[in-house]
Amino acid sequence: METAVKIPRHVAFILDGNGRWAEQRSLPRLEGHRAGVNNIRPILKFLNNHGVRYVTLYAFSTENWNRPQEEVNGIFHLLESVMSKEARELHKNGVRILHIGRMDGLSPKLQKSINRAQKLTSSNTGLTLVFAFNYGGRAEILDAVRKFVASGTPVDTLDEKAFAKYLYTADLPDVDLVIRTGGEIRTSNFLIWQAAYSEYYFTSVFWPDFNEAELEKALLNYSQRQRRFGGL
């Protein structure tokens, strides 16, 4: 990639199309999710090598509980595998792992894997990898309101900056670029607050096929946009 390309600080992905990728190949849907998990490593490596500092992956939404239980259990198992097996490799590369979303409903084993991965990598200063798992933008805002009310802070002191401290992403910068694979053109309750002024890039390519060449296209497209944030 040419050095003239502007690189976003924070890139977020809506990982869509895993199931349809598998169905096109007459494979079980879970094999699509497995292929999607395997695609994370090269994408992270590419982004890290090009100076992106924060990457958020929308892996499982609060609405995904409506999928068949077998598929949900399989996705949980895959995430647990990532947290257990990949965390050490990511740690060696200086990656900090964070989780955003609700822990309730997740198995104790999965919760343990998430907590262990976060603790192991907490002092790393390289790329920050955020897993949005059992996450929903509306749920996050409701949880933030509950935290604010419970804090007893006077309402008249609340502004956007203060409110952001109650979100799951309190210590993270807002998202510069949201990439959604799989052909759907909607935000699906993802980072409602943090992506208010993000640039969006939609592609019909399924996530398991979203390779470095496709990522270059997205970053080049982002680089050609002018971000005014409501100004001129």
What does this protein structure show overall?
Strands 3-4-2-1-5-6 form a 6-stranded parallel beta sheet, sandwiched between helices. It is of the alpha/beta class and 232 residues long. The protein contains 7 helices and 6 strands, in the order βααβαβαβααββα. Helices cover 42% and strands 15% of the residues. It has a single domain, classed as Undecaprenyl pyrophosphate synthetase (3-Layer(aba) Sandwich).
Features:
232 residues; alpha/beta; Undecaprenyl pyrophosphate synthetase; 7 helices; 42% helix
Concise overview:
The chain is α/β, with parallel strands linked by helices and about 230 residues long. It has one domain (about 10-180, about 200-225): Decaprenyl diphosphate synthase-like (Undecaprenyl pyrophosphate synthetase). Helix content is about 40%, strand content about 15%.
Mean of residue pLDDT? 93
Proportion of helical residues: 40-55%
CATH topology name, in short, is Undecaprenyl pyrophosphate synthetase
- The CATH superfamily name is Decaprenyl diphosphate synthase-like
Q: What is the CATH first-level class name?
A: Alpha Beta
What gyration radius follows from the Cα positions, in whole Å?
18 Å
Number of helices: 7
Q: What gross morphology would you assign?
A: globular
What number of structural domains do the residues give? 1
